[in-house]
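Provenance

Sequences were taken from public entries as deposited. Structures were produced by running a predictor on each sequence independently, with no templates supplied. The record for L,D-TPase catalytic domain-containing protein from Kitasatospora setae is shown for reference.
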Amino acid sequence: MKAMRGGYLAGALAGALALMATTGCSTDQAKADGPKSPAATASPSDTKPAVSAATIAIAPADGSTGVKPTGELKVTAGNGKLTSVKVTGPDGTAVPGEITADGTGWAPAGGLQVATAYTVDALAEDAKGVVANARSGFTTLTPEKEVGTSDNIADNETYGVGMIVSVRFKKPVTNKDAVKAGITFETSDGTAVRGHWIDAQRIDFRPENFWKAGTKVTIHYKLKSVETSPGVYGDVDKDEPFTIGRSQISTVDVDTHEMAVVRDGQQVDTVEFTAGKPGYDTWNGTMVVEAMEGTTRMTSAGVTKTGSGDEYDLVVPHAMRLTDSGTYVHGNSWSAGVIGRSNGSHGCIGVTDTAKGSDSAPAGKLYNSSMVGDVFKVVNSKGPVVSIENGLSGWNTPWAQW
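Predicted structure for L,D-TPase catalytic domain-containing protein:
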């Protein structure tokens, strides 16, 4: 045991001296080499991104609600130019718009949807090309009042070359220019279509001349974003397609009591008729079939004076309405002695027919070859020209005044 203890102490002493020698060697070497430099590190100023001098302002302010769908959204840049503006709705659809030529502004091409949340992302560059960015979000108002809208077009229906699109509103429109701009037409042959206000609740649309046969037309309604009058908005955003069929234009000569029916440029029939007698003269001018009513009851209420002897209450076949005031082309079974010879009606254009209407009678043949939108031009009547609001009679107004 003692021998082992002595050996252990001797070994431990030798180890300690060796450690001291090693430590002394390390210390001396460090002194000889001198102090070491700290590891190189990047300066904070070297990694700080450049700040763009360009500024971006987005209106309305972030978080805004109850925003009007027109006139409020705009993006502007200062000390630089906009390079990108993207406005999207909840479904990611981008709102059309353009950056101005000088790069300092952006506005939407049309109205926004109501009751919709939008996000705006914009980028701008300063003179050194350094980019600035901005984001904003807002929600458009939910209208408290809407105006009902209707027209005389059915989707994918076919109409005659004289068809006038008549749009009517249940309440008066005061913002007429904006409403007119919210109703646009796309035509397959590039035909331009123009609107004309008939009154505060009706606007009619037509081209300069009769439509060309076969034209494909789509009406684009975008009225939900339009304030039609203070606090009242439109109620329709939709596309409405229709087609123009073959051309049929009938000239009704009151002097000769004969109607020339021309289809696609070729006369296909001559039809005898009786028109309005003195005091009940048929309107002159161009009228358009606005409804194919078939068998219709006609009374003298509002037409003749009570006790005048001119009262009537008739059920007539093959009735085609031309005016709101009650002018028709219809079958006539009670005036065989005057049809083709003189005028004996209360303003309508009567064509030979049977009491119940026969498809083989002249009135039946004319009816079955006609459609809504066909043209009837009345000439040589002693009556005045039909007024623009009476049916689809806008063709009597010169294009320069339309």
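Residues 145-244 form a domain with the Immunoglobulin-like fold (CATH 2.60.40.3710).
Residues 2-33 form the longest helix (32 residues).
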